[in-house]
């Protein structure tokens, strides 16, 4: 099995970045939008990728996207070698994305599991702050509603009803609600939460796991008590996600999915169906699009992703996908390549399953 373990520099950088993100102001509008890594712009469809390292206020939702080539923040690295082209299993005909089940779904948090972890992380932060005599309660994420559809945009837009109503506007015409505002902080509160004085720059290095952090003296105190590395925010994140030196970061399944997706889209069978879809689009007035992820890059609808021109293109896009069974074949190829990747990292994947189950149990106990 070809993996590289303990990418410590990348892991430390990821944790530092998460705490730096948490240090941004949490107000409605542009400041709120800057606080968390945002999903890819609706104007450009993307395949699956790892989420950014979760800040202490809660992990990034499963729909969030990031660079496909970023290494996993902790533990094993996803293999980059290519095996033999895997055999296909059953190919469904134009399945709804909500009905697609892929192998790595079993190790990827649902929205409800993500929320439970975010709530638990908030509880751990509150407990840590209480050690310094500071009352700090961060608002929890809104309850999860509606069915999970994690593969909704795996092949670009695929729902004919949504396309006809909203074109390429992922929001469906409903803006995202503003992020809840965090409680105000005194200087001591800021120091306890983030691990540095307001007048000092945030630390750029530090131990990765909570096991290592407990062995580290930051030299920073509040009320005579030592402040943990990256403050209570960092401690809460580590306790939940990286309790020991052998912990594997929660981005691992996203990286596995990304690798499988890269292999699936490079598969000659997927390239042929992309070519068929492209010819269908060209015949109906949309030439020059190589694959479904490029529609809104080639045809710029500006800020009017739900306007008449975007709706017309989206309707044709979905119709051509159905004509060539792009989603059905794509789901079969994703399944085959995910199984192949899973076999290459079987030991690490088994370890991650155990660690994830323990993390969800810890979250449930804290929630």
Topology:
Elements: H1 8-22, H2 30-35, H3 111-130, H4 160-166, H5 187-194, H6 210-213, E1 221-222, E2 225-226, H7 231-241, H8 252-266, H9 268-283, H10 295-298, H11 308-324, H12 326-344, H13 346-366
Antiparallel strand pairs: 1-2
Helix pairs in contact: 3-7, 3-13, 4-11, 5-7, 8-12, 9-11, 9-12
Write a concise synopsis of the structure shown.
With 367 residues, this protein is mostly helical. The chain is 44% helix and 1% strand.
Keywords:
367 residues, disordered N terminus, single chain
Overall 3D form: globular
Radius of gyration: 22 Å
Question: Number of DSSP strands?
Answer: 2
Low-confidence stretches: 1-73
* N- and C-termini, Cα separation: 37 Å
Helix content: 40-55%
Figure out the total of helices: 13
Spatial strand arrangement across the major sheet? 1-2
Give average pLDDT, whole number.
82
């Amino acid at each position: 099995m070809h993996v590289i373990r303990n990418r410590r520099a990348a892991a430390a950088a990821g944790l530092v970045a998460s705490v730096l993100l948490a240090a941004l102001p949490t107000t409605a509008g542009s400041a709120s939008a800057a606080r968390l890594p945002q999903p890819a712009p609706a104007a450009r469809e993307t395949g699956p990728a790892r989420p950014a390292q979760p800040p202490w206020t809660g992990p990034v939702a499963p729909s969030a996207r990031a660079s496909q080539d970023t290494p996993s923040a902790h533990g094993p690295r996803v293999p980059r070698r290519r095996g033999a082209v895997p055999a296909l299993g059953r190919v469904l005909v134009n399945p709804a994305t909500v009905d697609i089940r892929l192998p790595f779904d079993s190790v990827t948090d649902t929205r409800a599991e993500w929320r439970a972890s975010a709530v638990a992380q908030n509880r751990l932060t509150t407990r840590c702050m209480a050690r310094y005599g500071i009352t700090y309660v961060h608002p929890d994420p809104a309850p999860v509603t509606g069915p999970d559809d994690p593969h909704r945009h795996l092949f670009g837009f695929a729902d004919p009803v949504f396309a006809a109503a909203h074109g390429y506007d992922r929001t469906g015409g409903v803006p995202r609600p503003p992020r809840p505002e965090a409680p105000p902080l005194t200087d001591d509160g800021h120091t306890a939460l983030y691990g540095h004085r307001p007048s000092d720059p945030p630390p750029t290095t530090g131990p990765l796991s909570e096991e290592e952090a407990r062995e580290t003296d930051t030299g920073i105190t509040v009320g005579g008590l030592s402040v943990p590395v990256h403050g209570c925010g960092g401690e809460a994140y580590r306790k939940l996600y990286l309790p020991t030196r052998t912990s594997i970061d929660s981005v691992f399944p996203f990286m596995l999915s990304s690798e499988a997706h890269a292999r699936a889209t490079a598969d000659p069978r997927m390239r042929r169906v992309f070519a068929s879809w492209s010819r269908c689009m060209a015949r109906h007035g949309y030439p020059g699009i190589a694959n479904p992820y490029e529609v809104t890059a080639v045809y710029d609808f500006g800020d009017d992703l739900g306007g008449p021109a975007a709706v017309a293109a989206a309707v044709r896009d979905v119709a051509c996908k159905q004509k060539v069974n792009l989603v059905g074949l794509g789901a079969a190829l994703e399944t085959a390549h995910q199984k192949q990747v899973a076999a290459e990292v079987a030991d690490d994947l088994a370890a991650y399953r155990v660690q994830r189950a323990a993390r969800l149990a810890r979250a449930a106990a804290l929630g």
